[in-house]
Amino acid sequence: MAIHPLWTDDYWLLIMQLYQKSPAGIKSEYSRPMVELALELHIPPKTLQEQMEALKERTTPSLQRLWDTYADNPRRLSRDVKRLRQMTGFGAGSTFYNGIDLTQPFEHDYLPVAPTEKLTPVMLTIILCLYFQLMTNTMVSETPEVQDTAHLMGLKPEEVVEVLKIYQTFDPILKREPLPHSPLNDEAQRLWQKYSNEAPEVLTTTAERLKEYFKGCEGCVLSRTKAAKAAKAASKPN
Fold first, then answer.
1. pLDDT tens for residues 129-178?
2. Which of 53, 87, 118, 160 has the fewest CB atoms within 10 Å distance of its CB?
3. Is 62 exposed, middle or buried, given 0-12, 13-18 or 19+ CB atoms closer than 10 A?
């Protein structure tokens, strides 16, 4: 397995702490804690999950020593993780990357599509999946599925309906008038085109996985957006 260029051995402590977070074990790459750590480090969640699997198996003597040191000593682990996070430049790579935008492709999925928007490509993907589950006349704020989707992502039902109406303009069956170009419309169209060339189950499976990020954190979209923006800002050169 190729190691990500921003990975350092110090990050094993963060992987260890996340592994031990209740319920202890390997965390899904789509779970909110895994994604938030990935945004913090600018390292894809899949890579962090692979490192977590290596830690669980103690594939090297150094990982076995790490396990022996911290597995039964959560207080020491918490103390050392806190010290690590206080280090200058933590989460922004080594000085070698100074002045380079470290934002990774996966991060854009969790960042607002524009400074004036709070919707992210992940949210738009989940709403796109909802679009294909509804009849056009049920794409209204009173529909339970619309309300459930909005509640999951911390949105208002009307905000979900707005996106559903945008998707209607791409549907060749409905023949709706196109809307003016905007970051939200452009990103929605990109996703429509992306998944229209895939089998239907690809979108369904992807949306169900992405929902993991929001589960257990309904209504806290603002805090997630602030965290994502902070991660992006930290990656920009001074």
1. 999 999 999 999 999 999 999 999 999 999 999 999 999 999 999 989 98
2. 87
3. exposed
Tokens matching residue 102: 């470290």
Distance CA 225, CA 143 (A): 26
Lowest mean pLDDT among 121-130, 167-176, 201-210, 223-232: 223-232
Give the closest residue to 43 by CA, choosing from 77, 15, 83.
Answer: 15
C-beta of residue 193 within 8 angstroms of C-beta of residue 124: no
Q: Is the bond into 23 cis (omega within 30 degrees of 0)?
A: yes
**DSSP codes joined into one string, the chain:** -PPPTT--GGGHHHHHHHHHSSSPSPPPTTSHHHHHHHHHHT--HHHHHHHHHHHHHT-SHHHHHHHHHHTT-HHHHHHHHHHHHTSTTTTS--GGGTTS----HHHHTTS-SSTT----HHHHHHHHHHHTTS-GGG-STTSHHHHHHHHHHT--HHHHHHHHHHHHTT-TTT-PPPPPP-HHHHHHHHHHHHHHTS-HHHHHHHHHHHGGGTTT-TT-HHHHHHHHHHHHHHTS--
For the CA atoms of 48, 43, 206, 177, what is the dihedral angle to 10 degrees? 170
pTM comes to 0.81
Can you read off the two tokens belonging to residue 184?
Answer: 């939200």
